[in-house]
């Protein structure tokens, strides 16, 4: 089983960090293929808790080589501070590899992210303010700066000039902001060259060779399917492709090499930032999910919006990612509800709809149609097998599996590595 993709099946924060870390001990490479430090992955190892943003979660597994692929946008200041934070805690970060083709997030991207959100006013996306959208926009617009540019001062200067000549006009004339000095940006970026030089590699060549030799490569998505710029709830999305195809373009590995695609699926639903969310709960049940589930953002500290499980979304994730398995997380959070509603379809303009509508306005109007399942009150955090779960928890999992279109191969019953029920092996 040489190549697997692990990705979020909802709007992010499904527990990808924990799932990746769990597999990290058995894989040779963990590769981030998109996104940047907008991601916030929490990994709990024993009594230690780690919050990772840009680094692949495999960095915590000693035998595993973490890779930042070409599809990622890298803020070098954040990268270095995350590395030194882990070094201080005794984590070996020396194996990290970074694609020379990955694009950089520079200070002007972060500035533009913040001012453009302010400019949108009520229509804002609610971004993480980390410069993600502007950095990807430059990449597509062919005025981006790549990691490899750090090692050639003359090219770097030309590229920063080309980008800032235009952006400074926008900053001054549209946003009424001071222009950003080209020299200052070039100098700051050049300062990252030496600390990063040793990590840069031809990651595409390396990963393809590794797969051909039968080594196990795990591609770790940031964000989730519904935040995908093509398949998500556009425009309330991130600016990259967390869906399975993104692993191919974002790491330079062909689709024929990928054997398994695992969707991380929370037993209920959360979302951070603006945009439609049919099963959102604005009542005490939503507050209870937020409190028990600890649903507060790892990156921005914002409260996550919470709602019941939505099977329409899970089915959609199965379809657009070609999911082979689900990893259902946070089942323990649902302990204590007498009855648990599950959204099985939507009502849109009086009609029952089973599949996620492609039309934005239809999705905005979608009202959830619920089926209600009986809850359980027993503590499930110690359960190690499916049979040890209370009957109603088993029924909840089986119902979700039937509705979602792919087998649930693992169940999270707590944040720790060992708080997992493994039903089918992923490897
Ligand atoms: P990610 O962005 O997908 O990696 O997810 P986050 O780390 O942002 O959010 C998931 C949160 O749930 C983290 O605090 C995890 O430690 C925690 N978590 C993951 N799996 C489980 C689980 O099965 N049960 C509980 N109670 N917490 C979990
Ligand atoms: P992980 O990897 C949840 C959301 C933001 C915003 C939208 C666009 O922890 O699952 P961006 O800064 O990317 O341009 O913001 O995407 N968002 C996330 N929501 N989890 C994440 O990452 C997210 N990364 C971005 O809140 O709505
Ligand atoms: Mg997160």
The first-level CATH class of the largest domain is given as Alpha Beta
Q: Choose one word for the global shape.
A: globular
Q: What is the subunit arrangement here?
A: single chain
Strand order of the largest sheet: 9-7-5-2-10-1-11-15-19-20
The tally of structural domains comes to: 2
Strand content: 15-25%
Low-pLDDT segments, ≥5 res: none
Helical content, roughly? 25-40%
Number of contiguous helices: 13
* First-last Cα distance: 6 Å
Can you list the ligands bound to this structure?
guanosine-5'-diphosphate, 6-O-phosphoryl inosine monophosphate, magnesium ion
CATH level 4 superfamily of the largest domain:
Adenylosuccinate Synthetase, subunit A, domain 3
User: Which structural category fits the helices and strands?
Assistant: alpha/beta
At the fold tier of CATH, the topology name of the largest domain is Adenylosuccinate Synthetase, Chain A, domain 3
On the 0 to 100 scale, the average pLDDT is 96
CATH architecture of the largest domain: Alpha-Beta Complex
Kindly state the number of beta strands: 20
Please outline the major beta sheet: 10 strands, mixed
Integer-rounded radius of gyration: 22 Å
Verbal overview:
- The chain is of the alpha/beta class and 427 residues long.
- The protein folds into two domains: 3-93 and 202-422, Adenylosuccinate Synthetase, Chain A, domain 3 (Alpha-Beta Complex); 103-197, Adenylosuccinate Synthetase, subunit A, domain 2 (Orthogonal Bundle), CATH 1.10.300.
- The protein has 13 helices and 20 strands.
- It has helices at residues 16-24, 76-88, 107-120, 132-141, 153-174, 182-190, 193-197, 203-212, 244-251, 284-293, 311-321, 360-365, 391-404, and strands at 3-8, 29-32, 41-45, 48-52, 65-68, 73-74, 97-99, 103-104, 200-201, 217-224, 260-266, 269-271, 305-307, 309-310, 325-329, 339-348, 351-353, 367-374, 408-412, 420-422.
- Strands 9-7-5-2-10-1-11-15-19-20 form a ten-stranded mixed β-sheet, with helices on both faces. Strands 14, 16, 17 and 18 form a four-stranded mixed β-sheet that branches.
- A hairpin with a 2-residue loop joins strand 16 (339-348) and strand 17 (351-353).
- The longest helix has 22 residues, at 153-174.
- The chain is globular and about 65 Å long.
- It binds guanosine-5'-diphosphate, 6-O-phosphoryl inosine monophosphate (IMO) and magnesium ion.
- Residues 8, 12-18, 40-42, 44, 294, 298, 329-330, 332-333, 412-415 line the site of guanosine-5'-diphosphate.
